[in-house]
């Protein structure tokens, strides 16, 4: 339902009223902003010396850009790894063998219910203790593993619900032309399901990118950690966090916009229905399919 | 797993109060959920209202908060609001951190509540809004009497998802120095690294136990409350 059906095209009186409400709303927003600015100023947070570091090259080359690079590195590794994990377990959930389905289902449901931070801390401490890796690599590996298990499970659900969203005729036709069930899955159903689920996959990428910030808690030197170090060095933690947040918002907003655009474009490319949201844990737990 | 391992492992629970740590997560979730529901509902009404500036303000809030990592918001609440601006919500250190983290969680999840409610509004057929207009209801009566009651019912499943995400995200309060489950798990593993796997599974299962009933409940609620059409 389009929200605009809730009200008529405004007539002259409604338009006058709307101007009034518009002005009032603008004043309220402006007042909130003004109060915030006065509050910040009273604490000396608007001092130029706290903001000028962001105009210096060494702030960016020394802190923010390396942090951003580490954020992107963890996100890229996690995206590739969770794609593989998602495909393997998504196919597992669709397998003809009941045992494989049950095992894949249990793995996926477990990792979707456990907080990512819990997994990251576990891998961070576990791998450090096992001493298998260079200590410098442990935080990255822990971040990527945590992100992969959670988001890979979401991808597995996307593969599954994408295949379930296809019309039955797709599989029937594949079987009729002589493909086996496995071939039908691999060659006909999963590729279509992935295209139908592209928007949801893209918005899950935003989740991965955002969750890399959890790495700061386990000493991974990503953007948030870099901002904190910068802030405690220059005494401008508020400003450093704000700049880091803006970088994240710009990256994620770009990704979201790309996902929205994909959603409208891929709608025609598949016989399944494209959804922009990951399948919900709430509905899955009901076990309706 | 031999008996010695098990006995050693169980002795850990006499030293560390695991249930108390989980209770902190549950309390964080409860306070943040109330804040997120109130703020999210206001935002959703703003976003479907006829006033462009309100729609714009609501959309901006959702875009900004949804695209910021929760960890940054929590760190900001503690280091920024408290550390730099000196905003204290309680004289007690722990309570202060707890309240700041709950506000951070609530403010972040309000954006997702708003989107869940908007998806609920989308389940209401256009004809309902047209009928409401036809009998002469303006925007506010139509929204309050016709659209929102049905939208809330239609939004039960997505709201359940937000609540599940909130339960899991309450662990991020660790970034704001709140003593909750993930922090205790870390302490326990650092204290007794030999039983790391068992400790992890206890905490992981704790969250499974918290999350799965919420999923089951909201699924059955969403079926029972669904408006038959």
TrEMBL record, chain A:
Belongs to the binding-protein-dependent transport system permease family. GO terms for cellular component: ATP-binding cassette (ABC) transporter complex. Keywords: Cell membrane, Membrane, Transmembrane, Transmembrane helix, Transport. Pfam families: BPD_transp_1. The chain crosses the membrane at residues 20-40, 74-95, 102-127, 139-159, 193-217, 237-255. It is found in: Cell membrane. GO terms for biological process: amino acid transport. Residues 68-259 form the ABC transmembrane type-1 domain. This is Glutamate ABC transporter permease. InterPro entries: AA_ABC_transptr_permease_3TM, ArtM/GltK/GlnP/TcyL/YhdX-like, MetI-like, MetI-like_sf. It comes from the Bacteria. GO terms for molecular function: transmembrane transporter activity. NCBIfam families: HEQRo_perm_3TM. CDD domains: TM_PBP2 (cd06261). It is a multi-pass membrane protein.
From TrEMBL, chain B:
The keyword Transport applies. The keyword Repressor does not apply. It holds the Pfam family BPD_transp_1. PROSITE patterns: ABC_TM1. It is a multi-pass membrane protein. Residues 22-218 form the ABC transmembrane type-1 domain. GO terms for biological process: amino acid transport. Its main location: membrane. The chain crosses the membrane at residues 20-46, 67-85, 97-117, 195-216. It is found in: Cell membrane. One of its GO terms (molecular function) is transmembrane transporter activity. One of its GO terms (cellular component) is ATP-binding cassette (ABC) transporter complex. Keywords: Amino-acid transport, Cell membrane, Membrane, Transmembrane, Transmembrane helix, Transport. Gene3D superfamilies: MetI-like. Belongs to the binding-protein-dependent transport system permease family. HisMQ subfamily. This is ABC transporter permease. It comes from Cellulomonas oligotrophica. The lineage of its organism: Bacteria, Bacillati, Actinomycetota, Actinomycetes, Micrococcales.
């Amino acid at each position: 339902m389009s929200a605009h059906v809730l009200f008529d095209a405004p007539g002259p009186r409604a338009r006058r009223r709307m101007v009034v409400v518009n002005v009032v709303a603008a004043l309220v927003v402006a007042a909130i902003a003004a109060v915030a600015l006065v509050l910040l100023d009273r604490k000396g947070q608007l001092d130029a010396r706290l903001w000028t570091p962001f105009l210096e090259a060494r702030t960016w080359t020394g802190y923010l850009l390396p942090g951003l690079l580490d954020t992107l590195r963890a996100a890229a590794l996690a995206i590739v790894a969770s794609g593989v994990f998602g495909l393997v377990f998504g196919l597992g959930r669709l397998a003809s063998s009941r045992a494989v389905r049950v095992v894949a289902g249990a793995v996926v449901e477990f990792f979707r219910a456990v907080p990512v931070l819990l997994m990251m801390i576990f891998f961070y401490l576990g791998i450090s203790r096992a001493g298998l890796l260079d200590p410098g690599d442990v935080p990255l590996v822990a971040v990527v593993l945590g992100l992969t298990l959670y988001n890979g499970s979401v991808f597995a659900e996307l593969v599954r619900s994408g295949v379930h969203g296809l019309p039955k005729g797709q599989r029937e036709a594949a079987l009729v032309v002589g493909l086996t069930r496995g071939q039908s899955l691999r060659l006909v159903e999963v590729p279509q399901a992935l295209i139908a689920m592209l928007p949801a996959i893209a918005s899950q990428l935003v989740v991965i990118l955002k969750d890399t910030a959890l790495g700061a808690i386990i000493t991974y030197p990503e953007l948030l950690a870099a901002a904190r170090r910068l802030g405690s060095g220059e005494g401008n933690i508020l400003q450093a966090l704000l700049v880091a947040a803006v970088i994240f918002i710009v990256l994620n907003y770009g990704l979201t916009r790309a996902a929205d655009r994909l959603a409208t474009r891929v709608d025609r490319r598949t016989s399944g229905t494209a959804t922009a949201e990951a399948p919900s844990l709430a509905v899955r737990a009901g076990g309706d399919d | 797993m031999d008996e010695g391992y098990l006995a050693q492992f169980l002795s850990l629970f006499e030293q560390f109060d695991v249930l108390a740590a989980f209770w902190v997560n549950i309390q964080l979730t409860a306070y943040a959920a109330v804040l997120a529901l109130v703020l999210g509902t206001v935002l959703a009404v703003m976003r479907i209202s006829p006033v462009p500036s309100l729609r714009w303000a609501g959309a901006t809030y959702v875009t900004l908060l949804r695209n910021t990592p929760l960890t940054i918001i929590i760190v900001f609440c503690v280091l920024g609001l408290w550390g730099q601006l000196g905003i204290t919500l309680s004289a007690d250190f722990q309570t202060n951190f707890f309240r700041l983290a709950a506000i951070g969680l609530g403010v972040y999840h309000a954006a997702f509540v708003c989107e869940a409610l908007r998806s609920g509004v989308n389940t209401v057929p256009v004809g309902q809004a047209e009928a409401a207009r036809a009998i002469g209801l303006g925007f506010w009566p139509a929204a309050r009497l016709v659209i929102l009651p049905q939208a809330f019912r239609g939004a039960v499943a997505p709201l359940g998802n937000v609540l599940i995400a909130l339960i899991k995200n309450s662990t991020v309060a660790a970034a704001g120095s709140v003593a909750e489950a993930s922090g205790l798990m870390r302490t326990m593993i650092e204290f007794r690294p030999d039983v790391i796997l068992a400790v992890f599974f206890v905490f992981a299962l704790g969250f499974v136990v918290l999350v799965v009933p919420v999923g089951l409940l909201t699924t059955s609620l969403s079926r029972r409350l669904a408006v038959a059409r």
